[in-house]
């Protein structure tokens, strides 16, 4: 068994790798051909939607599981008050501050594309437009808010379960139990979903966060996934094929898709397989992985607006083939993100409001992961 003080590099690597998947996903989502609302009124290439449809059912669930694991490790080193303060600074404050700092750009570009106020009875005051732009500029920030509320709910449950019985129960989860949890995950996909803004799938996200905390934070449990990594990987692929046969070419964000038993089987098998494979093969680090561990939250909260600006400027000022609509904004975003991160982390106010960092890290210290 690993020591609790040993850094679990595979968790870091899952986190930043998934953030990269999110960035690539958004490069495709912006030009989707499935009728999913985006900020750009621009057609895309239908075949490109395949990647977005394949990752969408599971990549955010994976982040919530990993976040639950990280919450357990964090609370082993600090008290509940310190944890709550840390989550407020690193998650809640940026999730609101960012929409007023630059999130409004998303709304502005949407307005330039579709004229959001064309049906207004008269001229809309600039301040009203700005507020509406900000409110429509949440983008990927929903994850930070969802994670903050899950963390606060966790603190409440910990007060009720003072003897940590749920945690000890989670230690007993063998491979059969881990596979059977799929049924509970599927049921959770029906619960606590917001009726209008469907991205807030509270049931499945809160539940998988708690599974990360109470079950997957045990070394014995993740070691079992390592042992079964190949069968799990095969199972994930087979479930993915079934999901593809059912929903290829359809809107993968609808409740009919996301609540389907096959979609949730594919989601859960993939989560189990990724954790097992990463712990077996990627529980190590290097200079690049260490940098990405530090920068992953910045990349997450910055990427969408940056990409949207590049995409808007590109599609409205060039006449290249459609494939370049994906390539150029994505490449430009990946080049810009490290530059922006290096600038922002050196400006105290922005470092605090955007990245949730209260003070510079000591040389050689790995920054605490924000998307955790």
Task: Describe the protein in words.
The structure is a single chain. Mean pLDDT is 92; it is low at 362-372. It is built from 16 helices and no strands. It has helices spanning 9-29, 49-55, 59-75, 80-114, 126-135, 142-160, 165-170, 175-188, 202-216, 219-227, 229-247, 255-258, 261-281, 287-317, 323-344, 348-355. Helix 1 packs antiparallel against helix 2 (49-55), helix 1 (9-29) packs parallel to helix 14 (287-317) and helix 8 (175-188) packs antiparallel against helix 9. The relative contact order is 0.16. With 372 residues, the chain is mainly alpha-helical. It is 69% helix and 0% strand. It has a domain at 9-26 and 49-284.
Give the SSE order as H and E letters.
HHHHHHHHHHHHHHHH
Mean pLDDT: 92
Tell me the major beta sheet.
Answer: none
Roughly what fraction of the amino acids lie in strands?
under 5%
> Which geometry do the CA atoms define?
globular
Q: Alpha-carbon distance between the termini?
A: 23 Å
- Structural class assignment: mainly alpha
Task: Give me the number of helical elements.
Answer: 16
């Amino acid at each position: 068994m690993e020591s609790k003080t040993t850094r679990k590099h595979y968790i870091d690597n899952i986190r930043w790798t998934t953030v990269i998947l999110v960035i690539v996903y958004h490069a495709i989502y912006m030009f989707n051909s499935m009728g999913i609302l985006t900020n750009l009124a621009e057609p895309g290439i239908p075949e490109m939607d395949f990647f977005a449809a394949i990752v969408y059912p599971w990549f955010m669930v994976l982040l919530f599981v990993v976040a639950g694991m990280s919450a357990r490790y964090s609370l082993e080193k600090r008290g509940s008050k310190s944890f709550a303060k840390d989550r407020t600074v690193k998650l809640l404050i940026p999730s609101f501050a960012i929409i007023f700092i630059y999130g409004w750009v998303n709304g502005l570009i949407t307005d330039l594309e579709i004229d959001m106020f064309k049906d207004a009875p008269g001229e809309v005051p600039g301040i009203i437009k700005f507020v509406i732009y900000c409110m429509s500029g949440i983008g990927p920030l929903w994850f930070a808010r969802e994670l903050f509320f899950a963390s606060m709910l966790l603190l409440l449950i910990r007060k009720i379960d003072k003897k940590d019985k749920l945690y000890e129960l989670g230690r007993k989860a063998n491979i059969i139990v881990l596979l059977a949890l799929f049924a509970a995950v599927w049921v959770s996909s029906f619960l606590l979903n917001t009726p209008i803004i469907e991205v807030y799938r509270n049931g499945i996200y809160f539940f998988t966060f708690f599974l990360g905390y109470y079950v997957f934070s045990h070394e014995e449990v993740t070691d079992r996934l390592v042992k079964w990594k190949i069968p799990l990987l095969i199972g994930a692929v087979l479930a993915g094929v079934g999901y593809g046969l059912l929903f290829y070419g359809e809107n993968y964000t609808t409740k009919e898709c996301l609540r389907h038993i096959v979609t949730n089987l594919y989601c859960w098998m993939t989560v189990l397989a990724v954790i097992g494979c990463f712990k077996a093969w990627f529980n190590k680090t290097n200079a690049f992985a260490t940098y990405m561990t530090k920068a992953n939250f910045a990349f997450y909260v910055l990427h969408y607006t940056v990409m949207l600006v590049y995409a808007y400027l590109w599609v409205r000022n060039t006449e290249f083939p459609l494939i370049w609509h994906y390539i150029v904004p994505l490449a430009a975003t990946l080049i810009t993100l490290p530059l922006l991160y290096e600038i922002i982390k050196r400006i105290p106010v922005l470092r605090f409001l955007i990245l949730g960092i209260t003070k510079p890290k000591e040389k050689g210290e790995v920054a605490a992961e924000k998307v955790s």
